[in-house]
Design a protein that fits this description.
By secondary structure, the protein is an all-alpha fold. Helices cover 56% and strands 1% of the residues. The chain has one domain. Strands 1-2 form a two-stranded antiparallel ribbon. One of its GO terms (molecular function) is oxidoreductase activity, acting on paired donors, with oxidation of a pair of donors resulting in the reduction of molecular oxygen to two molecules of water.
Length: 323
């Protein structure tokens, strides 16, 4: 059985009677405060700054570009990079595959093959030695170790471990895919596009004003990328430290609704680690999963098929507590 195929099956080494580490009934107050500071305050600060700059260095064009590109490129990562290319949760046409690969590249989180191989290694060794962005493995079980682990998982790993897993071990299927390799070779063209597009719209909407073009580039390019990247980074850090566990998995993955809201459903991370190949992460009631709605919409249009979901029986066997 290949490494890729194994990702779609129950976590290796687990049995019905396996012990589950660090399971609590609810998130502690301290955890809630940390989550608030790390996830909620930056967007609130962005809104406050925007209000102060309204009419001076921010317009409706900038807001529309920020939101539209945040959603489109974010879905490129969540639906494309993650659920389609990494876990093969569904199948689709070459055109849709190319669209998601390009949109994902426009978040500047690396080419498709690099992102996927890193993430597959994360699942193979989740929260164990060798996991590229675990906040737990290799860090002392004290406050200072937790702080260092949080920073490493959030963004520290990007500076010395990102892109180390290349080749066939975790990405043979994608390295054999001519379409994906071609899109990867044009990665820097997509990086240019992610900035050029908002500049062009701002420039034209502002009556061919390069100043308004630059303003749109800042909000629809730089700030949008900053905001989405840190939302994504929070899946690696916050969702392995703070939140609830509803299903049995062999790691410390957690469900965090705030991160889920910012990442179109990726914050239902414990659900995902319990059922890695599932196209749906928001498995329980009230767990909003916009990426899943996107896949479901494609399926209804005949553009997605072989959509993989856990059965009710599988969910019942792995459930720890009510969501």
């Amino acid at each position: 059985m290949s490494d890729v195929a194994a990702l779609g099956r129950p976590e290796a080494g687990e049995t019905a009677g396996a012990a589950v580490a660090t399971v609590r009934e609810r998130t502690t107050r301290a955890s809630q405060v940390v989550t608030l500071l790390a996830v909620v305050i930056p967007p609130v600060g962005l809104v406050v700054a925007g209000a102060g700059l309204w009419g001076v260095a921010l317009s409706w064009v900038d807001v529309a570009l920020f939101l539209l590109l945040y959603v489109l490129t974010g879905l490129g990562t969540t639906v494309g990079y993650h659920r389609l290319f990494t876990h093969r949760s569904f199948e689709t046409t070459k055109t849709v595959r190319a669209a998601f690969a390009i949109l994902g590249s426009m978040t500047i989180q690396g080419p498709v093959t690099q992102w996927v191989t890193d993430h597959r290694k994360h699942h193979a060794l989740s929260d164990q030695e060798g996991d590229p962005h675990s906040p737990h493995a290799g860090f002392a079980p004290n406050a200072w170790g937790a702080l260092k682990g949080f920073f490493h998982a959030h963004m520290g790993w990007l500076f010395h471990l990102k892109g180390m897993e290349r080749g066939e071990h975790y990405g043979k299927d994608l390295y054999a895919d001519r379409l994906i390799r071609r899109i990867d070779r044009l990665y820097f063209a997509w990086v240019v596009l992610t900035f050029a597009l908002p500049f062009a719209v701002g420039y034209l909407a502002g009556g061919r004003s390069w100043q308004l073009g630059l303003q749109a580039l800042v909000w629809g390019g730089l700030i949008r990328i900053f905001a989405y990247q840190h939302a994504t980074f929070s899946v690696n850090s916050i969702c392995h430290m703070f939140g609830r566990r509803s299903y049995r998995s062999r790691d410390e993955s957690r469900n965090n609704w705030i991160v889920a809201a910012l990442t179109f459903g990726e914050g239902w991370h414990n659900n995902h680690h319990a059922f890695p190949a599932s196209a749906r992460h928001g498995l329980d009631r009230f767990q909003v999963d916009i990426a899943w709605w996107t896949i479901r919409g494609l399926e209804k249009l005949g553009l997605a098929w072989n959509v993989r979901l856990p059965s009710d029986g599988q969910r019942a066997r792995r459930r720890l507590s009510e969501a």
